[in-house]
Amino acid sequence: MTTEDGDGNRRTDVKVSLIGGHRLHGATLQERTLTASLIGGADVDLRDVDIPDGTELKITKLSLIGGVTLRVRPDVRVEVTGLSLGNVTDEGPTTPGGPTVRINAWGLIGGVTVRRDGGAKA
Question: Can you tell me whether residue 110 is helix, strand or coil?
Fold first, then answer.
């Protein structure tokens, strides 16, 4: 996970498309990420990312139709804000402490699903 540019400034990664969602993987993400599309959601896999305790990773999703699927380790706390006609599915962290991922999801249709497991897919 990249958090700063060479000058010490925080960077925001921006992904934009008209139709079609985005797949975001750990090592390519910035501390702040914006994904926007007319139709399409975001599939975010953070299982292989070393997010230090106390760190916040912020992801903003804007779309007319499309939700967010977030894959994290069991110790990651997820906070969801925004407005959408979909549900938020998250059973919470299974271990205490850990880093925080904030999802700000804005859209007409589409929810947020959080899946927790220990390691990335092969």
Answer: coil
Beta bridge partners of 36: 16, 62
The DSSP line for 81-115 is EEE-SS-EE----SSSS--EEEEEEEEEE--EEEE
Q: Which of 38, 3, 33 is nearest to 19 (CA)?
A: 38
Decide which of 10 and 53 is more confident. Answer: 53
- Pairing of the two strands 56-65 and 100-109: parallel
Residue 97 is encoded by which pair of tokens? 């402490």
| b (16+ CB within 10 A) / e for 67-79 | bbbbbbbebbbbe
36-84 residue pLDDT tens: 888 888 888 888 877 777 778 888 888 888 888 888 888 888 888 888 8
| pTM summary value | 0.75
